[in-house]
């Protein structure tokens, strides 16, 4: 077993989870800095972008597409709803379903944020390399498709973009 009490700063983090989370925070800071001009975080941008691409989605569907739990997603959606960027409605066929949809204000904000996101994307690929960035996205997609729970059931993201 690896000793986590004396990490060597010149070597990769021995904990897979810690290494992934640190890298995610590092990259998130870059995207958040770029998207600040549109008043969004990268997480909020991702929500608006998926609603823009797929149309109305239930919180369960959206959570699955984002590999995020419903509770966390609910907390992130509240300010978007408050600011008029998303609308939560009731499904007339099934009152238990509450689809989320992008409002016109949300579409305008998303359109304003797209070039800022593209700038962050370009900066990342310029610093890390276009090919390594593409390989990283492929590896991360494979990670998301991996059944880490060890069950025989399919993963929540199977078949989802």
List keywords for this structure.
161 residues, mainly alpha, 6 helices, disordered C terminus
Structure description:
- By secondary structure, this protein is mainly alpha-helical.
- The protein has a domain at 42-140: Orthogonal Bundle (Arc Repressor Mutant, subunit A).
- It is built from 6 helices and 3 strands.
- The protein has helices spanning 16-35, 42-54, 59-66, 70-82, 104-128, 130-144; strands at 57-58, 86-88, 99-102.
- Strands 1-3-2 form a 3-stranded antiparallel beta sheet.
- Helix 1 packs across helix 5 and helix 2 (42-54) packs across helix 5 (104-128).
- It is globular, with a radius of gyration of 18 Å.
- Mean pLDDT is 89; it is low at 152-161.
Using the coordinates shown, work out and report the CATH topology of the domain at 42-140: Arc Repressor Mutant, subunit A
- If strands are numbered along the chain, what order do they take across the biggest sheet? 1-3-2
Helix and strand content put the structural class at mainly alpha
- DSSP strand (E) fraction? 5-15%
Number of helices: 6
Low-confidence spans: 152-161
Q: In CATH terms, what is the architecture of the domain at 42-140?
A: Orthogonal Bundle
Q: Can you identify the CATH superfamily of the domain at 42-140? A: Winged helix-like DNA-binding domain superfamily/Winged helix DNA-binding domain
| Biggest sheet layout | 3 strands, antiparallel
Order of helices and strands: HHEHHEEHH
Helix content: 55-70%
């Amino acid at each position: 077993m690896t000793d986590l009490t004396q990490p060597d700063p010149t070597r990769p983090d021995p904990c897979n989870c810690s290494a992934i989370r640190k890298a995610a925070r590092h990259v998130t800071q870059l995207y958040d800095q770029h998207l600040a001009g549109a008043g969004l975080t990268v997480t909020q941008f991702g929500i608006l972008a998926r609603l823009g691409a797929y149309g109305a989605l239930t919180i369960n569907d959206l959570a699955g597409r984002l590999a995020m739990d419903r509770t966390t997603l609910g907390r992130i959606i509240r300010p978007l709803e408050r600011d008029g960027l998303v609308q939560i409605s009731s499904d007339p066929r099934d009152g238990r379903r509450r689809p989320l949809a992008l409002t016109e204000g949300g579409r305008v904000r998303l359109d304003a944020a797209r070039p800022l996101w593209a700038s962050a994307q370009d900066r990342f690929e310029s610093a890390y390399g276009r090919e390594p960035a593409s390989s990283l996205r492929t590896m991360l997609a494979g990670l998301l498709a991996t059944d880490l729970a060890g069950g025989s059931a399919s993963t929540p993201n199977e078949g989802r973009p």
